[in-house]
Amino acid sequence: MATDTVSPTLPGGSGGSSRLFVGQVESLDPIMGDAMLVSVRVPRTVAQQLRPGRFFEITCRHETTFDPLLRRPFSVYRVDRERGSLVFLIRPFGRGSGWMARRKVGDELDVLGPLGNAYETSPTTRNLVLVAGGVGVAPMVMMADEAAAKGVNVAFLMGAANERGLLPAAELPSSVEYVVATDDGSKGFHGFVTQLARDYVLWADQIMACGPEPMYRSLRDAINPIRLNGRPPVQVSMERGMACGVGACLGCVVETKRGMRTACLDGPVFDLDEVLW
Amino acid sequence: MATDTVSPTLPGGSGGSSRLFVGQVESLDPIMGDAMLVSVRVPRTVAQQLRPGRFFEITCRHETTFDPLLRRPFSVYRVDRERGSLVFLIRPFGRGSGWMARRKVGDELDVLGPLGNAYETSPTTRNLVLVAGGVGVAPMVMMADEAAAKGVNVAFLMGAANERGLLPAAELPSSVEYVVATDDGSKGFHGFVTQLARDYVLWADQIMACGPEPMYRSLRDAINPIRLNGRPPVQVSMERGMACGVGACLGCVVETKRGMRTACLDGPVFDLDEVLW
Amino acid sequence: MSADLAVPDLSVDLAPNNPRELRLANPVIAASGCFGYGQEYAGLIEVSRLGAFVSKGITPEPRSGNAMPRIVETPAGMLNAIGLQNPGIRGFVKKYPRLWEKQRLTAIVNISAETVDDFAMMAAILDEQPGIAGIEVNVSCPNINRGGYCFGWDPEMSADVTRAVRAATTLPVIVKLSPGAEDVVLVAQAVEAAGADAISLINTLVGMAIDVRRRRPVLGNGTGGLSGPAVKPVALRMVYQVAGAVQVPVIGLGGILGVDDLLEFVMAGASAVQVGTGIFVDPQLPIRLIDGLAAWMIKEGVGSLGEIVGAAQPAAVRAARGRAAEGSG
Amino acid sequence: MSADLAVPDLSVDLAPNNPRELRLANPVIAASGCFGYGQEYAGLIEVSRLGAFVSKGITPEPRSGNAMPRIVETPAGMLNAIGLQNPGIRGFVKKYPRLWEKQRLTAIVNISAETVDDFAMMAAILDEQPGIAGIEVNVSCPNINRGGYCFGWDPEMSADVTRAVRAATTLPVIVKLSPGAEDVVLVAQAVEAAGADAISLINTLVGMAIDVRRRRPVLGNGTGGLSGPAVKPVALRMVYQVAGAVQVPVIGLGGILGVDDLLEFVMAGASAVQVGTGIFVDPQLPIRLIDGLAAWMIKEGVGSLGEIVGAAQPAAVRAARGRAAEGSG
Ligand SMILES: Cc1cc2nc3c(=O)[nH]c(=O)nc-3n(C[C@H](O)[C@H](O)[C@H](O)COP(=O)(O)OP(=O)(O)OC[C@H]3O[C@@H](n4cnc5c(N)ncnc54)[C@H](O)[C@@H]3O)c2cc1C
Ligand SMILES: Cc1cc2nc3c(=O)[nH]c(=O)nc-3n(C[C@H](O)[C@H](O)[C@H](O)COP(=O)(O)OP(=O)(O)OC[C@H]3O[C@@H](n4cnc5c(N)ncnc54)[C@H](O)[C@@H]3O)c2cc1C
Ligand SMILES: Cc1cc2nc3c(=O)[nH]c(=O)nc-3n(C[C@H](O)[C@H](O)[C@H](O)COP(=O)(O)O)c2cc1C
Ligand SMILES: Cc1cc2nc3c(=O)[nH]c(=O)nc-3n(C[C@H](O)[C@H](O)[C@H](O)COP(=O)(O)O)c2cc1C
Ligand code: FES
Ligand code: FES
């Protein structure tokens, strides 16, 4: 394992396609309670090659201050490949995300990306299950748009603390089956979204999830009894505190069966069965 | 001298009247080239007792960042005692002043003050000469307003690098005699404002100045040959980097004939003849 | 905090081994050099609400301090090279002890000297004074240019000073450690053995800033002491190490600007904290910390501070510190 | 910079006493642990424009590093406890030396070990490799939990390592000092006497952060290394002290995020600088520094870097450093 610990530059990794650029905020719209949709104008080439699950590291401070120092990683909620714009879903729970949510139309952002790998849909996949927890919904929405456009059948399972935290159904393509769960039962299934996932395991060709790490563990526990030798495969996006975002600092590693892997370069998307929990 | 080095709490010092409060930006107007007039709504009690030369320490960063850490001292350009508002003249040459100049109407400011002592006009003064260098014009304008209202004859001498840097005459009461000098001769006297001061020494009952330290030295050299045993008296405001603003840290001292004095509490206004240059 | 809830016990005795005690109503102390002589901030905050305050560093003889500039801002911090400007021990005692007694303030006197005898001499003078709750011995004067070698870097030298001060007074003695020591734990253990009632850390880190335009150091003194949020991670680490290695109460400081910072130091093992630079940034900070700590304890159901002192320490250490802290209220 | 003006000479030889030389086109070097193996940032900046880069720290055996979290942000800085995750010297030489030779990069290998013999062993292996311009000896591994006592804190131990590495290779040897040493000048003079071609400083300061919610240290390793703008004042002071006390070139680092920071280090006495954390913040930083330095030199009429190396030092030191710097281009 140990000699395995140097991150190779993977295709889809930040090696080739990522870049530094200035994005311009074009709109801010409240959503899901205290969250904010921040739409950013970016070079068209960036938008065109973008795939769901990849993320951007954004400097979340004015240039004249050094605090907070590090960029913050944000994945993409929606992309407009023609106009060249990205929509980020920001939950303002800390300094960087709070700063993002306070932007005004016209503000410029110092952006690095796209970074990391992406969720991969296999060509043979007909039925796709997406599992989203809280703000983790962002890349799932982008994936739902892409899959629905390809005619893939999508079941979108979303969990939140309460009704306010849920994604409005109107945000998803009409063809998508949208099922929700809330911890307090204020809407949909009363309990964890991972319980809902059970009913879709046999139907699904692939499962993709994005949310906090505890959600992945509970998903694993909920569906593994039903899965047959690793089918359907499950892809999850791992959240880690990040510094460089390009595989240089080894600060964001995920321990996998094939050794230490970086969430920023080898990930953030990993095979559920590969990760050592 | 040494036992003299503990700052006594002077009348007019920050001991009694100063306080912490939230001010609200009510307008921003460009002036003197790259400078900005920032009008701030403050508690009326603060405005009412305010005297020219005293200053406020303002936190020049968003509350979620620690950099730049320290407050910045700004003296007052104009006061509206009825409405309770202060106008600051900001030259955006660094991080704090730049931040101030970027404020928007409605923004709140974390303000400490008023701090320090004030320029003192003696009851017998009929003719007052004010000498202003660059952004140091701020407290001189407030003093001109006050003196003119009291019927004192005011000669206002202002120096700047060039015409753009000069205070528009309309900013001063009509009764004030306004004379200007520019380093490049683009307006008024071609040279240092301190040269102009010479012609007013014998007329003046008091001289007050605010500007960079070199200006004070050149003022001294220009007028001392004409002054007779310290008449007329000259008051100058000393600029020092400051931390506490209340005489606690001893970081802002000025060496005087009576020992080390703090610019924030014993000053910023000192008798020209008291300061050891 | 809401009135209907019981107010938690914030009090702490920082000298449990000393019959004279150093009992504070709460664990928030204004740090030396940042709160003058307890008078300067009187118009802005209720000084009597502080657990205590520490005076500016007093020296055997009067000092007029270093050349200007004496302070310069750095990223999330500041450098100072005041040079211990103070009226000297004799000028000091003429003015403040009686004043403090009248004002009923809990005042700790910070002393600084260049010989063991001078430390002892000052301690003896203070021993007879009213209005003084304790002495903080500053064994590190990083920005005083005398030989430069620092008492606080050496366990033996630090212990010598502590022993001499201990012998000269029955007042509670806090020894304030220097972060410049190679192994601050050895110094802490040495001063504890030499009779320190409590240990405070950290003093400033020696730093520098250069004026690129003038091509020379910014500070008149060349180097200065670094303080503020920038140093907090270093201070926390040292407090964590020292609290895990001594039994006397530890007073943590370095970059505290909010309740979470205070809690970090307490969980690292500090029985009390000091705030310095933070007061310049927000004169109300000490009050915010006292009220914020009480509110947090109520929210978390923590009845007395001792319960969380050293909470982030390994279990073994925690047990020991826990006792020490409880012993100190 | 405007094309019509002569481009100033940014080149520097960091091993003037070594026939193999360590000549860089410019004084901007990417710091160890912050630039991987010279590949990770290839898509973002022209790596070949850097004066040089230093590899992640290599150890005798492969290491999988510390438990997560490995990094946490602090005021104007960050703490890291990566734990020297690396493929080990043998895994390393299989992959990178030939790659670097092919890519024509000026690469310096950072080595780290727990015994003098292991340092020598790695130096001997690297001596035979292509594509390696020099070795940086990391005598300070603050976040590796082996006994904790650090080579870099002790002049003799640091000298022993230097001597052993010097004997094992003719490659230029840079010794990277630890800021944890009680007196970094003594360590610098010891490693200079032991044959170091150059000295780099500072490595990270040992720090800590505590998760108040979980009531335990944030980092998996407990403590970590502090870097970024927060440490710049301490780094500058140490560079100033060391540059005033040795003749070999000094490489300054610690919190550089802009051209003014670079100039501060150069004026303090550094013949070159490294940037670490700053690259995370702005991957373009090394290029900005190179172009910005050239532009500043043209504006100020400075023809070669040597003219301003140590400009903020006392005149006597300046003269000496000046010669050393000129000697090194
Ligand atoms: C690949 C990836 C994609 C992401 N996508 C999104 C997104 O689409 N929308 C969104 O709102 N957020 C997203 N995040 C999270 C985001 O990057 C920030 O971490 C989050 O917003 C908190 O940062 P902050 O500055 O607001 O909080 P801070 O003020 O930095 O931190 C608040 C508290 O949380 C802790 N903390 C913060 N971030 C982390 C972390 N990553 N790991 C461990 N502890 C942490 C801090 O230590 C602190 O105690 C993503 C993260 C990753 C890795
Ligand atoms: C009593 C008093 C009244 C003042 N009134 C005004 C006013 O009315 N309008 C106004 O625009 N400014 C005023 N100033 C100056 C103001 O407080 C700031 O110092 C100035 O705006 C620069 O701060 P900054 O944050 O913008 O620059 P910074 O980014 O902090 O500094 C830029 C550069 O200048 C240096 N520097 C900044 N301030 C000082 C200082 N005070 N002493 C030494 N070096 C320094 C810094 O070290 C840095 O190198 C006053 C200062 C004092 C003491
Ligand atoms: C302006 C200033 C003056 C100081 N003077 C003293 C002093 O006289 N004696 C002392 O022991 N510490 C002195 N200190 C150090 C502080 O007491 C404290 O140890 C240090 O600043 C770290 O705490 P902080 O980050 O909260 O400021 C001084 C600090 C500052 C900023
Ligand atoms: C994530 C990270 C990893 C590091 N790894 C190493 C290392 O392996 N070897 C080493 O000598 N220094 C290492 N360092 C220290 C840096 O090389 C540098 O000395 C320090 O970060 C100060 O410079 P900076 O403030 O520019 O980052 C590392 C620093 C960081 C932030
Ligand atoms: S953030 Fe992933 S390796 Fe640096
Ligand atoms: S700023 Fe004047 S004494 Fe602190």
How would you describe this protein?
- The complex is a heterotetramer, with two copies of chain A (277 residues) and two copies of chain C (329 residues).
- Chain A has 277 residues and is α/β, with parallel strands linked by helices.
- In chain A, 17% of the residues lie in helices and 32% in strands.
- Chain A has a seven-stranded antiparallel sheet. Chain A has a seven-stranded mixed sheet with strand order 11-10-9-8-12-13-16. In chain A, strands 14-15 form a two-stranded antiparallel ribbon.
- The radius of gyration of chain A is 18 Å and the shape is globular.
- Chain A starts with 13 loop residues before the first helix and ends in a 6-residue tail after the last strand.
- Chain C is α/β, with parallel strands linked by helices and 329 residues long.
- Chain C has helices at 88-103, 116-127, 155-168, 184-193, 232-243, 259-268, 277-281, 285-300, 315-327, and strands spanning 12-13, 23-24, 28-30, 52-54, 71-74, 77-80, 107-111, 134-138, 173-176, 198-201, 205-208, 210-211, 216-217, 223-227, 250-252, 272-275.
- In chain C, strands 3-4-7-8-9-10-15-16 form an eight-stranded parallel beta barrel, surrounded by six helices.
- In chain C, helix 3 packs parallel to helix 4 and helix 5 (232-243) runs parallel beside helix 6.
- The longest helix of chain C is centred in the first third of the chain and has 16 residues, at 88-103.
- Chain C is globular.
- The model of chain C is unreliable at 142-146 and 324-329 (pLDDT under 50).
- The chains are: A alpha/beta (277), C alpha/beta (329).
- Chain A binds chain B through residues 61-62, 64-68, 95, 98-99, and chain B through 61-62, 64-68, 95, 98-99.
- The complex binds flavin-adenine dinucleotide (FAD) (2 copies), flavin mononucleotide (FMN) (2 copies) and FE2/S2 (inorganic) cluster (2 copies).
